[in-house]
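User: Hi! I have a protein structure encoded as tokens and I'd like to know what sequence might fold into it. I'm fairly new to this, so please keep things simple.
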């Protein structure tokens, strides 16, 4: 009879499962976002480089030659 009236000393399962599910889902979402941000764009292999005009090239050459 004493065991039937005794209080449980451990936490209910739902208090352990909920935070673990939230932690696992947060980690999964974090990995997916990280992978999405770290992947190169599909067209990155032949992206066009920026072309400077003749005036811009001359101005850049003046700036670079002024500072050793």
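Assistant: Happy to help. Inverse folding works backwards from shape to sequence: for each of the 68 positions I chose a residue that suits the local structure. Here it is:
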């Amino acid at each position: 009879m004493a065991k039937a009236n005794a209080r449980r000393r451990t936490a209910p399962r739902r208090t352990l499962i909920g935070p673990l599910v939230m932690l696992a889902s947060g980690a999964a979402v974090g990995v997916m976002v990280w992978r999405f941000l770290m992947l190169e764009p599909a067209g990155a292999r032949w992206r066009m480089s920026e072309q400077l005009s003749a005036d811009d090239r001359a101005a850049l050459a003046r700036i670079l030659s002024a500072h050793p």
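A useful reference point when you look it over: The chain has a mean pLDDT of 81. Feel free to ask if any position seems puzzling.
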